[in-house]
Amino acid sequence: MIAQARSSLTFVQLAGLLASTATLLSVSNADTGIRFGHDIARISSEFNSVFPAGNFNRNVSTTFWQTSVLVNNSNVQSDLNRILNVSFIAYDDSFYQLLGVAGYESPKQLEIIFKFPPKPAFATRQVHDGTVYAPEAKAIFFAELHVPSPGYSADAMPWVWRIDLSNQSNPQTTKVYPSPQLTIPNGAYYHNGSVFWAQEGNYTNPGGVVRMDPITLKTQVVQNNFYGHRFNSPNDIVITKTGATYFTDGYYGTDNFNDSLPALLANGIWRWDQKTGNIRQVAGAAEQAFFNPNGLALSATEDKLYITNRGKTSDDPAGGRTIYRYDVTTAGIKNREVFAYVDAGFPDGVKTDRDGRVYGAVTGGVDVFNVDGILIGRIKVANGDTAVNMVFVGNWLYIVGRDNAYRVKLNTTAV
Ligand SMILES: *[C@@H]1O[C@H](CO)[C@@H](O)[C@H](O)[C@H]1NC(C)=O
Ligand SMILES: *[C@@H]1O[C@H](CO)[C@@H](O)[C@H](O)[C@H]1NC(C)=O
Ligand SMILES: *[C@@H]1O[C@H](CO)[C@@H](O)[C@H](O)[C@H]1NC(C)=O
Ligand SMILES: *[C@@H]1O[C@H](CO)[C@@H](O)[C@H](O)[C@H]1NC(C)=O
Ligand SMILES: *[C@@H]1O[C@H](CO)[C@@H](O)[C@H](O)[C@H]1NC(C)=O
Ligand SMILES: *[C@@H]1O[C@H](CO)[C@@H](O)[C@H](O)[C@H]1NC(C)=O
Ligand SMILES: *[C@@H]1O[C@H](CO)[C@@H](O)[C@H](O)[C@H]1NC(C)=O
Ligand SMILES: *[C@@H]1O[C@H](CO)[C@@H](O)[C@H](O)[C@H]1NC(C)=O
């Protein structure tokens, strides 16, 4: 169940919540292979093998629970509709351990900690990406992302948001204004006392990597070219403890926003060594694997690198929607494998935990995979929202979507 942060729950909401807990608990419908608790739905393996209605279909822009049942099977349709009312979907019992619950009957809360104001009128959409936690500031930073309005006034540009966690039971989310201003910031990573942003750039400011002091919010461009070539639209970034920096670069600026020069470099993953300054492409051009690579995550032990690929559009069924896994070597990455292909949207943000699980932010929520790439469960965001990125702070996973920021307490940590 999705609840407001405790401070903003009204008495009426709270009463309703308690009443529904009592009436909905643990009703099951053996027919469809879906069992319901109040907050968790458990999908059986039989369901995954044979869909419980004879005719069905689902297009690329929908979620699993929006599958159309094409024969009259009211049980299946009503159970799919009931998934709208839960916050977690378990595909495997190991998901209960992550949630720290005994089973699907147990209560489990996903909190909405902030509702974003409406997107600017001139923008067709707005997303929130690049979640990163800076311990010095006790704060999470993430970027809003929308096309800037011509005129480029301060309000017309995408800025940065901060969730102040100095009081963990009362997170405060506000817009902040780094200086000099970032130029379409996207993914971010915390390293060595600083937040490093991957920024897309625009016609007049080349994209690249920008370092930001998490306290003063002062920024400094630290990487912006490959021997004089501009990058296309740097999207996400990770940095190993020794300073090996990986960032993805796709055609987002040109294709989504038409706000940057036509691409001159291949889509790919770049490795910038902060110690030597060496910059080189380590995946992409040579193997043709990527079209608009996007999210990046290192495993907790920094021996694996996860890279997501969007494809031409967010729901491109061919080539997009994939999380690839590489081995990290001392000089780069090798051994690409398909780690997971997701069924809704594409994994924009991707993160890992200390137990080897991988989290992908997709349409409808966050997919959780075990270390073998098996989908064990989903954390659903509010109906209609799309999860964009997330970050662990201790046991809490903070998720930013297009519409809201959320958090859920999990039985793991990032490292
Ligand atoms: C996809 O399916 C959903 C639900 O059935 C429907 O609302 C939507 O219009 C469909 N979109 C396309 C592109 O067919
Ligand atoms: C399902 O039932 C409705 C009314 O009960 C009917 O109008 C419709 O044609 C039926 N559809 C199928 C595919 O049998
Ligand atoms: C979802 O919950 C609402 C509010 O408790 C209820 O009115 C509705 O019937 C539920 N929907 C399903 C499909 O169970
Ligand atoms: C939390 O996870 C550990 C394994 O990492 C497990 O032993 C423990 O039982 C889990 N706790 C709960 C409450 O599920
Ligand atoms: C933290 O926030 C909670 C909830 O608003 C409040 O009750 C508590 O007094 C705050 N703690 C501090 C140290 O300000
Ligand atoms: C590029 O971004 C900068 C902010 O970093 C802004 O001042 C400038 O107006 C933008 N230019 C264009 C052409 O979008
Ligand atoms: C951390 O930053 C300091 C300067 O503030 C620098 O000397 C050092 O090399 C950096 N270490 C890494 C691993 O990036
Ligand atoms: C993209 O922007 C350029 C320069 O502002 C403009 O000439 C061109 O018409 C735009 N293309 C589209 C498809 O909007």
UniProtKB/TrEMBL annotation:
It comes from Venustampulla echinocandica. Keywords: Signal. Residues 1-30 form the signal peptide. SUPFAM superfamilies: Calcium-dependent phosphotriesterase. InterPro entries: 6-blade_b-propeller_TolB-like, Oryzine_lactonohydrolase, SGL. Coiled coil: none annotated. Pfam families: SGL. The keyword Coiled coil does not apply. Residues 177-396 form the SMP-30/Gluconolactonase/LRE-like region domain. This is SMP-30/Gluconolactonase/LRE-like region domain-containing protein.
